[in-house]
Amino acid sequence: MINTHPNIVIIGGGAGGLELATKLGHKLGKSQRATITLIDKNRTHIWKPLLHEVATGSLDTSLDGVSYSAHAAKHGFQFILGEFNALNAESQTITLNQLLDENGQLLIPPRHIRYDELVIAVGSVSNDFNTPGVSQYCYFLDSQSQAERFQHALLDRFTRVHQMASEEPESSNHLSIAIVGGGATGVELSAELIHVSQLLKHYGMSEFKSTKLSIRLIEAGPSILPLLPKRISDAARKELKNLGVTVLEGTQVSEATKTGFITKQGETIGADLMIWAAGVKVADFIKTMNCFEFTRNNQILVDEYLQAKGTAHIYVLGDASACQQPDGSFVPPRAQAAHQMASNLAANIVAKLNGKSLTAFQYHDHGSLVNLARYSAVGSLMGNLTGNSMYVEGKLARLMYVSLYRMHQSAIHGPVKTVGLWLCEKLMRSVRPKMKLH
Questions:
Q1: How far apart are CA 298 and CA 321, in angstroms?
Q2: 213 falls in which pLDDT band (50, 70, 90)?
Q3: What one-character-per-residue DSSP string does 29-90 give?
Q4: Cα(375)–Cα(194) distance, rounded to whole angstroms?
Q5: Chain segment 162-181, per-residue pLDDT in tens
Q6: At a CB cut-off of 8 Å and minimum separation 6, what does 423 contact?
């Protein structure tokens, strides 16, 4: 049995971190067998695969966001607002950055927090590969604040094109958007942008027509969705082209400027708004912690129990975790992997504190789905019995994609509340606009 009152600290409230905090809160926190502490630099949680919908205004974070403080109070853990800055593995303490208010004034000085068991779930950020101009001129979709920043800029551009329709010639009054990165984020964002542009006529912007919007999706490799089966990438490419998206494959960007991208071949791709969604890595600050072993993308190498190699009492889950599978490959940075890791780690932490043996983590690939706004979805589902994949598209794939989010909601809220949230969303959508207009 547990003889002490350990402090289990989880850094990062993404899909894996929040699910883990919720599970441990139920198993240990509510019974006061341990103190469960979740730390995040944001006050609310948004499921990361939905950030492209936040960026277009299709999703209102006031409806789908989860307040960490409120959620913690209901599920047996405590929440601390703060940004992870440093780690001392010997003294088992972490350091949080000072916290400033909106005016830049000191609100809370740097803090030191001791842990008995530490879980690092800081997630990943976009990898700009040190491409000149990208950090200065491009938008990123790594967080809710970044997605909302792009949404505000997008709405401003929509408004400008609409209101200047009678004052500028047709040839110059348009909006061009360039997206670098043909992975799931870039593909889904492209389709979502087409969708919201077609909604504008219902909300007083009748002058913004589909002919006034041009979207270029730029992929350096030979095909979009390079990590997925060819059949899926082919179907997604066909659907995007039908929607009017220009797909540029085999096009490597060498520089970003104020007016667009410059390719390796010296061509210029002009754009009013530029988004960088090419590749991911763990934030560079993690490399300052010399107690870890890293991959080239700053992921922390872990053993079969998700414990950081060469350390004690430190675990890593989600995108920040480099967990090698029996075939030599690493577990991909996907939401389903974070979900599975959270379940495994919750069980192992309870087992460890009770003096029981641990269970090695095994990743099960349930397939991949790509959502093309309200138009379609494509993907493959892995058979649990045969191990074979089944190609799905259209309404069935769309239904399966939505179910992934419901599974995440169920993991943090429970099935009953998830049904309630679904009903509330249905009611709210009947009285609210289909896109965020502020």
A1: 9
A2: very high
A3: ITTTSSEEEEEESSSEE--GGGHHHHHHTSS-HHHH-EEHHHHHHHHT-EEEE--EEEEETT
A4: 10
A5: 888 877 777 678 999 999 99
A6: none
- Lookup result for tokens 């530490």: 118
End-to-end CA distance of the chain: 53
Q: Exposed, middle or buried: residue 160 (CB in 10 Å: 0-12, 13-18, 19+)?
A: middle
- If you average pLDDT over residues 59-77, what whole number do you get? 89
Percent helix, percent strand, percent coil in the chain, to nearest 5: 35, 25, 40
- The 10s digit of each residue's pLDDT in 346-397 is 999 999 999 999 999 999 988 888 888 776 778 777 644 345 666 677 777 7
> Helices in 301-393 by DSSP H: which ranges?
335-353
Identify the pLDDT of residue 3: 46
| CB neighbour list of residue 51: distance below 8 Å, 6 or more residues apart | 141, 142, 143, 144, 146, 147, 185
> What amino acid is encoded at 147 in this protein?
A
The CA distance from 316 to 341, in Å, is: 9
CA atoms within 13 A on the CB side of 311: 29
> 60 and 74 in contact (C-beta within 8 Å)?
no
As a whole number, the mean pLDDT across the chain is 90
Alpha-carbon separation of residue 363 from 28, 91, 336, 346, 391 (angstroms): 25, 32, 9, 15, 21
* Phi and psi, residue 81, nearest 5°: -80, 120
One-letter identity of residue 160: R
| Backbone phi and psi for residue 218, each to the nearest 5 degrees, phi listed first | -110, 125
205, HSE (Cβ side, Cα atoms, 13 Å): 22
CA distances to 33, 117, 230, 313 from 6, in Å: 8, 8, 49, 11
**341's tokens:** 């890791």
Distances (CA, A) of 26 to 21, 35, 349, 414: 9, 11, 13, 11
Question: Is-contact 27 346, C-beta < 8 A?
Answer: yes
